[in-house]
Amino acid sequence: MTDEFERRHGFPPGANEVRLAGHADRAAARTLAQAAIVPAGLGTFYDSIGDVTRADVGNGYFVDPAADVLLRFQQYGAVDVGADQRGGGLVIGSNGGGLSCVAGPGGVIYRTRTASLTEPGLDRVADDLRQFLELLERSLTRFVANGEVE
Fold first, then answer.
1. pLDDT (tens digit, 9 = 90+) per residue, 38-47?
2. What is the pLDDT of residue 27?
3. β-strand 100-103 against 109-112: which pairing, if any?
4. Distance in angstroms (rounded) separating the CA atoms of residues 68 and 93
5. pLDDT tens digits, residue range 70-80?
6. Residues 6+ apart with CB under 8 A from 113
7. CB atoms within 10 A of CB 78
8. Residue 53, class by beta-carbon neighbours within 10 Å (0-12 exposed, 13-18 middle, 19+ buried)?
9. In whole angstroms, what is the distance from residue 100 CA to residue 36 CA?
10. Dist CA 63 CA 35 (whole Å)
11. Phi first, then psi: what are they for 72, rounded to 5°?
12. ∠ CA(116), CA(118), CA(120), 5° rounding?
């Protein structure tokens, strides 16, 4: 993906990695789990993965470290994911263009329509974290193949 990046764009590529979870990541994930707001799939994810950074795919795609998710939750609380949902969601990442990704209490992943988290307007993008990560993988594959993002 980065072979021709600098030639095309005039600057070197950013970070594009999947970082394995360390001790601090797993500790933050356990603290999140104690808050009883983390969907099961997200806890499992953070047991192995520290974060995902795809800075050079479109505006970028990011799945934040558990410590960042925890800090945001402690400072701002949960995101309202709608009247039909019990509890709130956690901001777990972004698209690099100001829109956030929110994991709802049942595991559904939403994307905000605006940069605001107080009245974000949410679109359902995946039924669960696995499907969300598969969508990210397809976006990466499509970007590498033809420079387009979904």
1. 777 888 898 8
2. 92
3. antiparallel
4. 9
5. 998 888 888 88
6. 99, 120, 121, 122, 123
7. 18
8. buried
9. 21
10. 20
11. -60, -40
12. 55
SS3 120: coil
Number of helices (H) and strands (E), helices first, in the chain? 5, 7
Q: Which of 149, 108, 113, 150 is nearest to 130 (CA)?
A: 108
CA angle at 106 for the pair 105 and 112, rounded to the nearest 5°: 65
8 Å CB contact between 112 and 125: no
CB-CB neighbours of 81 under 10 Å: 22
3-class secondary structure, 19: strand
What SS3 string covers the chain? Answer: CCCCHHHHHCCCCCCEEEEECCHHHHHHHHHHHHCCCCCHHHHHHHHHEEEEEECCCCCCEEECCHHHHHHHHHHHCCECCCCCCCCCEEEEEECCCCCEEEECCCCCEEEECCCCCCCCCEEEEECCHHHHHHHHHHHHHHHHHHCCCC
Whole-prediction pTM: 0.80
**What type of residue is 17?**
E
- For the record, the structure tokens of 57 come out as 């795919």
Amino acid at 139: S
